[in-house]
Design brief:
With 349 residues, the protein is mostly helical. It contains 13 helices and two strands; from the N terminus they run H-H-H-H-H-H-E-E-H-H-H-H-H-H-H.
C-alpha cells in the first residue's frame, strides 16, 4: 500500500531545512526562520524513516534474502549521492575551492565515510545509517516478540532522559566521532517505528478524520526560537526536549493518521515531485544558497534563484544519477543469480 501523503511530507521537511538555512545565511526576515529551526525538518525525516522501516518490513520475514534486499535498498537510496558529495567536498577543500562542504583532512574524510561524524547537513546521515542497523534488532523481534520492541524503546528513552543525552564525542587518532548525534536522534526514529507498526491495525473512526488536521503543520513554526510562545528552554534544546518530541510526534500523527489520504495539499503532483527529490534537495541546497548569496541581488531574488537552482540540481541528481544507481544496486542479486544460472547452463552443455 502506497501512502502518497508521505511524499509531500518529505518535501515539507526538505523545504523547512532550505528556508532555515536561507534565513541564516542571508538574514532574510531578520533571520527569524533560522536559529537552528532546520532541526524540525530533520526531525520529520527521522520520524518518516522510522515509520517507513517498520511499515514496510515488519510484515516480512527477517531472513537472509529479505535482509540483503533491505540493505541494498537502503544503500541505493542513501549512499551514492552522499559518497560523491563527501569525496568531492574533500577534493575541493584541498584545492581551496569550497564549492560544497568543508572536509579539511583525511581524518575528517574517513569519519564521514565510516558514518561516525558529519559536518554541516551531512551530520544527519550517520544517525540514519546507524538506525538501519538498530532496526534489524526490532525486525528480528517483530514476528513473535513484538512486545520487546516497546520495552526496548521505553527503556532507551528513559535512560537517555535520565542521563541527559550523554555528550559522547571526540576523536581517535585524529578521526572525529560523534555518538551524541545518534543518541539525540533515536527518540524520533523510535516514535516513527511505533506509528509504522500500527498504521494498518489502528482503526481511526471516520468522524475523527478531517482535512482540517492539516493545520497541525502550523505547530512547527511555533517551535522556532524566534516565534515560539514557549518560555522554557525547550525551544532552545530542540533535540533534547521530550516536549518538542511530543509536539513533532503529534504533528506527524495528525498528518499520517487523521488527514484523509485524498487531501489536496498533501496528495498532489508537486508534493510527489518535491518528495522524490527531497534527499537531493537536502544535501545540495546549502552550497547553492551560499554561492547565490555572494551576488549583489535583492534578498527576494536570492531566495527565488536559490530555490530554483536547488530544485533543478536535486532533480538532475535524482533523475540521472541517484535513481539509475539505486536501481542497479537493488538489482545486483538478480543479476548474480542470472549469471550463476547462465554459467551452470553453459557448464552442462
Amino acid at each position: 500500500m502506497h501512502i502518497r501523503k508521505l511524499n509531500s511530507l518529505r518535501g515539507i521537511a526538505a523545504l523547512i531545512v532550505f528556508f532555515t538555512h536561507f534565513s541564516d545565511i542571508t538574514n532574510w526576515l531578520g533571520g527569524i526562520l533560522g536559529g537552528g529551526s532546520g532541526a524540525y525538518g530533520v526531525m520529520l525525516f527521522f520520524l518518516l524513516s522510522g515509520f517507513l522501516m517498520s511499515y514496510l518490513y515488519f510484515g516480512k520475514d527477517c531472513n537472509k534474502a529479505n535482509i540483503q534486499a533491505y540493505f541494498l535498498a537502503r544503500a541505493g537510496r542513501v549512499l551514492p549521492l552522499y559518497l560523491v558529495i563527501v569525496v568531492s567536498s574533500y577534493i575541493l577543500t584541498q584545492t581551496d575551492n569550497p564549492l560544497l562542504y568543508n572536509i579539511p583532512d583525511v581524518q575528517s574524510l574517513l569519519a564521514h565515510l565510516l558514518f561516525i561524524f558529519g559536518g554541516s547537513v551531512l551530520w544527519s546521515i550517520p544517525p540514519e545509517i546507524q538506525f538501519y542497523l538498530v532496526f534489524l534488532l526490532f525486525w528480528l523481534a517483530a514476528k513473535r516478540r513484538r512486545g520487546y520492541i516497546y520495552v526496548a524503546i521505553i527503556a532507551v528513552m528513559i535512560l537517555l532522559f535520565l542521563t541527559n543525552f550523554p555528550r559522547i564525542y571526540g576523536d581517535v587518532y585524529g578521526v572525529p566521532y560523534n555518538v551524541f548525534n545518534v543518541l539525540r536522534s533515536l527518540p524520533l526514529f523510535f516514535v516513527g517505528v511505533i506509528m509504522g507498526m500500527h498504521y494498518d491495525s489502528l482503526k481511526v473512526p471516520d468522524y475523527l478524520k478531517s482535512h482540517w488536521f492539516i493545520l497541525a503543520l502550523c505547530l512547527i513554526p511555533l517551535l522556532y526560537p524566534a516565534l515560539s510562545p514557549v518560555t522554557t528552554d525547550a525551544k532552545r534544546k530542540m533535540w533534547l526536549s521530550y516536549e518538542v518530541l511530543l509536539v513533532m510526534s503529534s504533528v506527524f500523527f495528525c498528518l499520517v493518521f487523521l488527514v484523509p489520504n485524498n487531501n489536496l495539499l498533501l496528495a498532489n503532483r508537486f508534493g510527489d515531485f518535491i518528495g522524490k527529490i527531497s534527499y537531493s534537495l537536502y544535501l545540495l541546497h546549502m552550497p547553492i544558497i551560499a554561492h547565490v548569496n555572494q551576488y549583489a541581488l535583492a534578498v527576494e531574488l536570492k531566495l527565488l534563484l536559490s530555490l530554483l537552482l536547488s530544485i533543478f540540481a536535486a532533480f538532475m541528481s535524482h533523475r540521472y544519477f541517484e535513481k539509475p544507481v539505486a536501481t542497479w544496486i537493488r538489482n545486483l542479486p538478480a543479476k548474480r543469480a542470472a549469471n550463476k544460472a547462465a554459467t551452470k547452463a553453459a557448464a552442462s552443455v
